[in-house]
């Protein structure tokens, strides 16, 4: 914003504007040497000037938002600059791991403040007019600076911020949702990962390997810190997405294994499987809880039984979350993340000897992805078809679960091929996802029925009655899904979907 910008009279759109005392703020930002926090859209700072005491540490986490707003979740700990709070370092441990947290910028801010109130006299928000100086490394003189307006909205405010943005815009203010740290250091937008490799039709197989490992690590880390915000009761969505990330990465490594050193792939896939199993237990409890919370117009005795069953599930989830907390705090998990990030930068490709005359050659990382990927997708397709054929016309629940796993592997392989192959791979992935979804719902119903039957055998009369009724409903759902999956499979089995491989 232009340093000469003059703040307009906000009383045209805000009933009451009250000037507050100016503040002088000193903030020091910390990150890893490779800006690992900023890559995830996270800032970590210590700031003084907002009150008495030695200052406060703040972690700002991304919470979405577009346009002129910058939506962030803030977590704060009181304390001096000399000692980082253990709660903050524990929250960031999955990203920071073995890297040091060091100062990367120091900002000196003079803040003019205006308190805004609506027509009922309720506090609506605070408009801060900040003049920011970026202090040089010696701290002796300002090195650069800028001016920035921030509108901090009060929770549950009754007024819209749109009129305030409009009057500021008419006065010459330009919307800019960059954080102060980004402006100070000229950083790319928080959380931006760049274009990524393996996104072109002429990419090599090695480009695809780098892109898939990078994407898998990004997806896992994007939910690592969200789970750590409350390890006793981590968010349902973060558990689900972290589990998907671990399983997707494990499946990708299986597909791409011919290109990679088997002594690296095997142990890493084993660690990802263990992580997925721990996350899976919590996810299974969350899915089952959703079934129990569904309002089915049950008689009162069944509704009472539902509540008791939910209480049992909540206890199980708490125990499983303790196991997850131990995993996330453990060195094995941190080493796994280190290995994956290192492989994203420099994959452990297996060296390939030259082909002998008259014989084929194993795929190499320097081969064109357009040549290698169709073969890998074909391998996944054939594995799925064999599993379906061996199951016969009346597959067991276990066989349907295996078909679901093979469908998921095919879907992931096709999705990996989309940047190189285009629409044919996208159509195959969509058809495989339909089979996976139907059979996933079937597997959830099978698991729910088994758990409910176990509760019916060992629970109180109320729990036994409710669990028996609900188990019967899950059996009905399974019969319905058994009829549906064949239709989804016939669509996936169409020859037109696999012509490209």
Task: Kindly describe this structure.
It is a single chain. This protein is an alpha+beta fold. It has 3 domains: 10-175, Beta Barrel (Hypothetical Protein Pfu-838710-001); 201-349, CHAD domain, CATH 1.40.20.10; 368-501, CHAD domain. Helix content is 53%, strand content 15%. The chain has helices at 36-39, 86-91, 93-96, 162-170, 180-185, 205-228, 236-255, 262-293, 300-329, 331-345, 369-391, 397-421, 423-458, 461-492, and strands at residues 16-31, 43-48, 56-62, 72-78, 102-117, 123-135, 142-153. Strand 5 (102-117) and strand 6 form a beta hairpin. The two termini are 54 Å apart. The model is unreliable at 194-198 (pLDDT under 50).
The tally of beta strands, per DSSP, is: 7
Please estimate the helix content.
40-55%
What class, by secondary structure content? alpha+beta
CATH architecture of the largest domain: Beta Barrel
* Overall pLDDT score: 89
Number of domains: 3
- CATH topology title of the largest domain: Hypothetical Protein Pfu-838710-001
Assembly type: single chain
SSE string, helices as H and strands as E: EHEEEHHEEEHHHHHHHHHHH
The CATH superfamily of the largest domain is Hypothetical Protein Pfu-838710-001
Distance from first to last alpha carbon? 54 Å
Counting DSSP H or I runs of 4 or more residues, the number of helices is: 14
Strand content: 15-25%
Topology:
Blueprint: E1 16-31, H1 36-39, E2 43-48, E3 56-62, E4 72-78, H2 86-91, H3 93-96, E5 102-117, E6 123-135, E7 142-153, H4 162-170, H5 180-185, H6 205-228, H7 236-255, H8 262-293, H9 300-329, H10 331-345, H11 369-391, H12 397-421, H13 423-458, H14 461-492
Antiparallel strand pairs: 1-2, 1-5, 2-3, 3-4, 5-6, 6-7
């Amino acid at each position: 914003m232009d340093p000469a910008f003059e703040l307009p009279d906000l009383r045209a759109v805000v009933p009451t504007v009250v000037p507050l005392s100016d503040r002088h703020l000193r903030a020091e930002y910390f990150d890893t040497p490779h800006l690992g926090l900023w890559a995830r859209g996270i800032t970590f700072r210590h700031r003084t000037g907002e009150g008495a005491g030695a200052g406060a540490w703040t972690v700002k986490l991304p919470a979405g938002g577009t346009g002129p707003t910058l939506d962030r979740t803030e977590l704060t700990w009181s304390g001096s600059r000399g000692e980082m709070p253990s709660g903050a370092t524990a929250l960031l441990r999955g990203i920071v791991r073995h890297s040091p947290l060091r100062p990367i910028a120091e900002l000196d801010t003079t803040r003019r403040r205006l308190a805004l109130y609506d027509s009922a006299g309720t506090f609506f928000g605070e408009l801060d007019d900040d003049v920011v100086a970026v202090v040089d490394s010696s701290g002796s003189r300002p090195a650069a600076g800028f001016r920035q307006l921030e509108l901090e909205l009060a929770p549950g405010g009754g007024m819209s911020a749109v009129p305030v943005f409009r009057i500021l815009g008419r006065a010459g203010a330009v919307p800019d949702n960059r954080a102060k740290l980004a402006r100070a250091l000229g950083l790319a937008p928080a959380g931006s990962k760049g274009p990524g490799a393996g996104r072109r039709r002429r990419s090599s197989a090695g480009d695809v390997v780098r892109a898939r490992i990078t994407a898998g690590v990004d997806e896992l880390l994007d939910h690592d810190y969200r789970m750590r915000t409350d390890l006793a009761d981590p968010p349902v969505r973060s558990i689900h997405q972290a589990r998907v990330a671990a399983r997707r990465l494990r499946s990708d490594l299986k597909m791409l294994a011919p290109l990679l050193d088997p002594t690296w792939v095997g142990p890493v896939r084993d660690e990802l499987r263990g992580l997925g199993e721990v996350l899976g237990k919590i996810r299974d409890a969350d899915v089952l809880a959703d079934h129990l919370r569904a309002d089915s117009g049950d008689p009162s005795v069944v509704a009472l039984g539902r509540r008791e069953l939910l209480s049992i599930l909540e206890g199980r989830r708490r125990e499983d979350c303790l196991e997850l907390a131990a995993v996330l705090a453990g060195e094995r998990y941190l080493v796994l993340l280190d290995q994956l990030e290192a492989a994203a930068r420099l994959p452990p490709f297996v060296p390939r000897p030259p082909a002998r005359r008259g014989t084929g050659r194993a795929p190499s990382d320097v081969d064109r992805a357009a040549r290698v990927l169709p073969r890998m997708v074909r391998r996944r397709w054939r594995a799925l078809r064999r599993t379906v054929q061996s199951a016969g016309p009346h597959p067991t629940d276990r066989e349907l679960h295996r078909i679901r796993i093979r469908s998921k592997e095919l879907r992931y392989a096709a999705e990996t091929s989309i940047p190189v192959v285009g629409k044919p791979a996208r159509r195959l992935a969509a058809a495989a996802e339909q089979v996976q979804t139907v059979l996933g719902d079937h597997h959830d119903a099978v698991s729910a029925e088994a758990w409910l039957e176990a509760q019916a055998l060992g629970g109180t009369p109320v729990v036994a009655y409710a669990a028996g009724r609900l188990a019967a409903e899950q059996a009905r759902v399974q019969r319905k899904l058994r009829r549906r999956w064949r239709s989804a499979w016939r669509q996936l089995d169409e020859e037109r979907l696999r012509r490209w491989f």
